[in-house]
Design a protein that fits this description.
This protein has about 550 residues and is an alpha+beta fold. The chain is built from 19 helices and 21 strands. Strands 3, 4, 5, 6, 7 and 8 form a six-stranded antiparallel β-sheet that branches. The relative contact order is 0.11.
Length: about 550
């Protein structure tokens, strides 16, 4: 679920109180919604007797309850609950959306909205922040993925049966209005307070594009929304004009979105009519194939795609098409693994069923969808399970078996098992992380100090070009001392050993946040990338990427 529609065609999933449903950020779009009428009962042609018999049974039970049950009940709510419980027996992404929530969901298709800017889910009766929306007020305030919202304006919202609608009512609001939150954050024994000023939430999906050097371009795409391809195409064209002949496409943390924007993006890199992705459902009704169709703007240069465990659905379609066609190199970690296709079916009361009708497969035949055989609750814990098993630090050996082995168009071996396995694995580097650094993030000290420094030095900073800033600006020891004082005032106790461990990362982050205040994302990301292990690893792999681009393996 998301406070903001995230482009996933738009997968607006309702959570039950007892289990997590798919957060909006990992939903996957259909190229075009398939809408079916549902105004009257019609038995299934596959199993007509059983569906008719079950329909009559359910109708009878509802009638008896309505007529004879001792207490007055809301039949509509009871029916919604029964449908939700039934769908939980299917897969993690099939869902039912009541009419009142559907109207709200569709309002997000119309463009920007005003709120605090988070993507969230409700799990075990608690609001979990999936991610702060890039460029939004929650990100600026220091809200982090994994935070749990416990209180809103002094009202406890955890353990109270909060619904998606309830979250929207509390977090959305007019621009410049403020909302007080109290957050439970991992590693903190006390609730962390935040005051967030609501704003118009941006729908831009290409966060930044810039020239890393005289031949290397970089484009970061945060989601596949209604205008993603146009934004991407513009960024690609601008970089080509600047002399780009090799590209890093960053899809890390990209939750997916419109399928057609994903295939059009992949088509920009692939010549001819190569297969991009295909679907397979029950029978042949929902089977389809998507092919490259147009001459793209970057069909020959070296290409590297960055992926991680947060890259899902449409991101995986792009990466799978590039990898299986031997067009580019995938660098990072195994992607999320969301490859079930939902069809929106309107029901006669204005509600909607999102029914899984097929699976997505990469050109080599790999199913993008990871297993959900152990149930939806275990499925929802996949990220935590990967962390605990050490997969963020070394590849999961259980996925490198013959039964999961596939071959690309030129015979390279790739593996299935759910998600896209990278060609070059880059582990998470935690050597510079510390509890002290975590507290600086948690208490928003780094952002607060950077903003204060910018305000005190705004005139001087704004006279500098970014190139001048990036080359000459240094976070001094005096600045670090001032930051430590600010941290102390925010109840972050100084720890010399931990500070020394994280000092270089603190310097980098402070410089990046100051750059964002002056130059926006065009300043923030280039500085941040100096300490970005996956980005730095990608820069070293262009030899292999160039070999692939020229037809080698």
């Amino acid at each position: 679920m998301s406070e903001k529609e995230n482009g996933d065609e738009k997968r607006f999933i309702r959570n039950s109180p007892t289990q997590i449903k798919l957060p909006l950020f990992i939903a996957l779009a259909l190229a075009a919604g398939v809408l079916l009428g549902a105004n009257m009962f019609s038995p299934s042609s596959t199993n007509p007797q059983d569906t008719a018999k079950s329909y009559l049974k359910f109708r009878d039970v509802l009638s008896y309850i309505d007529r004879d049950y001792v207490d007055t009940v809301n039949i509509g709510e009871l029916t919604d609950h029964a449908i939700t419980e039934m769908l939980e027996k299917l897969d993690p992404h099939t869902s039912y959306i009541p009419a009142d929530e559907l109207a709200m969901a569709r309002s997000y298709l119309e463009g920007d909205f005003e709120g605090i800017g988070i993507e969230f889910n409700i799990f075990k009766d608690t609001i979990y922040v999936i991610t702060p929306i890039s460029g939004g007020p929650s990100e600026a305030a220091g809200i982090l993925a994994g935070d749990k919202i416990i209180q809103v304006e002094g009202e406890t919202v955890a353990g109270t049966g909060i619904t998606n609608e309830g979250v929207f009512k509390r977090l959305r609001g007019k621009k410049d209005s403020k909302v007080e939150l109290k957050i439970m954050r991992h590693g903190n024994s006390k609730l962390v307070p935040f005051t967030i000023t609501r704003d118009k939430i941006p729908t831009v999906s290409v966060d930044v594009s810039y020239m890393v050097n005289d031949k290397t371009g970089y484009i970061k795409v945060s989601r596949f929304s209604a205008h993603t391809f146009e934004e991407f195409k513009k960024a690609l064209t601008n970089l080509r004009k600047k002399g780009m002949n090799q590209l890093i496409l960053d899809l890390r943390g990209n939750p997916g979105g419109y399928m057609d924007h994903a295939t059009r993006m992949a088509d920009e890199f692939l010549a001819g009519n190569k297969l991009l992705v295909y679907t397979d459902g029950k029978g042949t009704r929902y089977d389809s194939k998507s092919f490259a169709r147009t001459k793209g703007d970057f069909e020959n240069g070296a290409l590297i795609i960055l992926l991680d465990e947060g890259s899902a659905s449409a991101s995986e379609i792009v990466a799978g098409a590039i990898q299986d066609n031997d067009r580019g190199l995938i660098v990072g970690r195994r992607s999320f693994g969301k490859g079930l296709v939902q069809m929106p079916i309107p029901l006669n009361d204005g509600s909607e069923l999102r029914l899984t009708i097929s699976r997505y497969y990469t050109p080599s035949g790999r199913s993008i969808q990871k297993s959900y055989q152990n149930g939806t609750e275990e499925y929802a814990k996949d990220m935590l399970n990967r962390l605990e098993s050490g997969e963020y630090f070394h590849p999961d050996s259980s996925l490198f078996v013959d039964s999961l082995k596939y071959k690309t168009s030129r015979g390279r071996v790739v593996y299935g098992g759910g998600g896209i396995m990278p060609d070059v694995f880059v582990p998470q580097d935690t050597t510079e992380f510390s509890e002290y650094l975590s507290q600086l993030y948690n208490k928003n000290v780094l952002r607060e100090y950077a903003l204060s420094y910018y305000k005190d030095n705004q005139k001087k900073l704004e006279k500098m070009s970014f190139a001048q800033f990036n080359k000459s600006f240094v976070v001094s020891d005096k600045m670090l001392q001032d930051m430590v004082k600010l941290a102390n005032s925010n109840e972050v106790t100084y720890d010399a050993k931990q500070f020394d461990r994280s000092k270089n990362l603190i310097r980098n982050n402070l410089k990046a946040f100051i750059a964002r205040s002056v130059y926006g994302n065009a300043g923030f990301y280039p500085v941040l990338h100096e300490s970005d292990d996956e980005f730095q690893a990608a820069l070293k792999q262009f030899g292999r990427a160039q070999k692939l681009a020229k037809g080698g393996v």
